[in-house]
Amino acid sequence: MPSGVNAAMIARPSPEQFADIHRRFQAPVSRFDCGKMCAPLNGGEPVCCSTDHAIPIMDKAEYKLLRQKSDLWRPFRPKDKHAREVVSDMATSCIATECKGAKFCERDNRSLACRSFPFFPYLTAKDELIGLSYYWYFEDRCWVISNLGVADAKFVREFIAAYETLFVLDPEERGAFRDQSAAMRRTFSRWRRPIPLIGRDGGYFKILRGGRMVPTDVDTFRKHGPYRSDKIYARAVKEANAAAAT
User: Fold this and answer.
1) Which of 90, 131, 153, 167 is most buried (most C-beta within 10 Å)?
2) pLDDT of residue 10
3) What is the model's pTM?
């Protein structure tokens, strides 16, 4: 931040501007109900709808908008060390939230983070928004991450448009996702793995060490955890059901 500039002086998106973003970002990730794939392994609730796995972070203006429309959302109260760390690391313009759960979902009142999950806008080291990658720490829990081909083309278009709009309104958000993308590059470089990417105009790509982007086939992307095969998934569901019955 430039010297002499107070954070309070920087323009923030308004609730009305978030309402416009939400209105134009309605497409579901996929025609499949992906929650039905991960819920059997997560006590019956989709991973992305449980604060045990993902704590929704909203801009305060977005939270104000959603609270005006519904009682779906409330402030999140951390109950363990990890959750307290997540909350303490937030920007002052944001708030940690939680909803009533998947059974009570109101699709028109989902947050931007909910609409986007498990994806985030991937920016290159030159600050170019080139597509969608995913929050890699959910690889072992999110079915979509192991099946990137299910992401709908309309979802990709609306995702890119939503974040391009947000970045104009809130350059700090662009910076946050630039940092997220850089963290992914460091992590995948350490793992010696290419970064999977859905291109902003469609298609599938790998980001190699050094940042080179090369086209690829979606079937080359790695599968993870219980989603590595139908056999492994069926066994994992059977074990989860047995554990729940005891």
Assistant:
1) 131
2) 62
3) 0.91
Predicted confidence (pLDDT) per residue in 20-51, tens digit: 999 999 999 999 999 999 999 998 999 999 88
Per residue in 50-88, pLDDT tens? 888 889 999 999 999 999 999 999 999 988 898 888 888
Beta carbons of 111 and 56 less than 8 angstroms apart? yes
Domain count, the chain: 1
* Residue where the block lists tokens 């995948």: 188
Provide the token pair at 145. 């991450």
pLDDT at 243: 93
Cβ atoms of residues 34 and 46 within 8 Å: yes
Residue 4 lies in a domain: no
- Which whole number is the average pLDDT over 167-181? 96
In a domain, 2, yes or no: no
**Both structure tokens of 94:** 């944001």
CA separation for the pair 19, 209 (Å, rounded) = 38
In which domain, by residue range, is 91 found? 11-245
Would residue 78 count as lying in a domain? yes
Whole-angstrom Cα distance, residue 33 to residue 17?
Answer: 29
Map tokens 């985030």 to a residue: 120
96 neighbors 75 (Cβ within 8 angstroms)? yes
